[in-house]
User: Fold Methyltransferase domain-containing protein from Venturia effusa.
Amino acid sequence: MDGRIFEMNTLVAYMLPTDSKENARLEMQYLIVTALMGGKVYRAPLKKDPRRAPRRILDVGCGTGVWCLDMAEIFENARIIGMDIAQASRQWERIPENVTFVIGNMHKDPWNGPYDFIHTRFMLGTAPDFKTVVQQAYDNLEPGGWMESQELWPRSGCDDHTMPADFLLKEWEEYQNKVAMTSAPVRIADKLRRWFREVGFVDIHQEIYKIPINRWPRDSRLHLLGKLWCDQLCGGMSAFTMKYFTSDPLYWSPIEVEIYLAKVRAAIRDKNVHAYHRIFVVWGRKPTREEAAKRQAANSGSSNQKPATNSSL
Assistant:
């Protein structure tokens, strides 16, 4: 479509290309988010002591595989598996011996657990119900293992009232949300903590990072990150708009889409608008066997307890 390569072998039609141009954008996105998180590629409290460090790590929707390569350096004795609907298509000059990339559909194919750590990042628009992915991760973790999700909240925010009510990026985001709701929602970040709790995770934590949409911050670090975020957002906008907007229920023509996007890009680059996106990072731990047994016993005890009666009746 529009000269780009898309992957169709999914439960829902994956809305982004899987070509080299998109891979370059994803790698830039990865570097931006890592810098935003202070150079950290994960936030879960994983042990680095070889006796307690994770032995098997799974990255669901690994994209280019760059996160797996970074994790392989941090945990040299761990087996790192990256799973995606397409082969981690960036041809790395050297793949560490402890990294394996597999082609797999997270909805249809086995995850081949158990793992000590399962990671997802920017999975919006990939599942009709992302809670089922959280459940699948829980089921494929060792007791005591961790899951972490790093997710974009695709709705612009602004704290100083410089964003007008008719800001075109917000309009574009509402269009995107409307179309995505028919197949795979994109607004999942704010629900992650609740889903983690509902499937059984404990020790759940959440951090929210703000990334400026352009160079408006005076802070030099955020100024640079905002510029890079603007570049990757504007550069990828046609790719992750065309398939949405030319489909049900909008049915725009490709020319209509591009004319509209030119206006949206101009709005994004307006430094008078101090807007930002939010990135939610949520992590939680699967209970140990002992914790699970205690919870089961407590639940069993409460269900077997006879209701109190009033002896005077």
In short: The chain has one domain: 20-289. The mean pLDDT is 90.
